[in-house]
Amino acid sequence: MKKTGSTNKHLVSLIQDLKEYAGKEDSAFWKRIVKDLEKPSRNRRKVNITKINDCSKEGETVIVPGKVLGEGDLDHKVTVVAFQFSESASEKLKDKLTIKELFEKNPKVKDARILG
Prior knowledge:
Layout: H1 9-25, H2 28-37, E1 45-48, H3 49-55, E2 61-69, E3 79-85, H4 87-92, E4 96-98, H5 99-105, E5 112-114
Helix pairs in contact: 1-2
């Protein structure tokens, strides 16, 4: 029988850590992130910087449980958190973190917006 699910060991490890924490702390926020990350890669969110700019406010933390693409520019300061960033998005964004980095630094996230 063919194995299903992600073969990306970093993603599998992240999902496992988030599930464990979400279950222990009963965190609906991290449960939602896990649900989105468990989707097949073709169904995961892909968000351009333009959409992040349009849907965020100054100083906000925006989480994309998928990939951030480099189309557009930001005209205000936003911290962008995602599983992946395209090369052009990485060059354009100053304040960016991976979901794993955010989870390790601040697992009890407050005031973050999930975008997608």
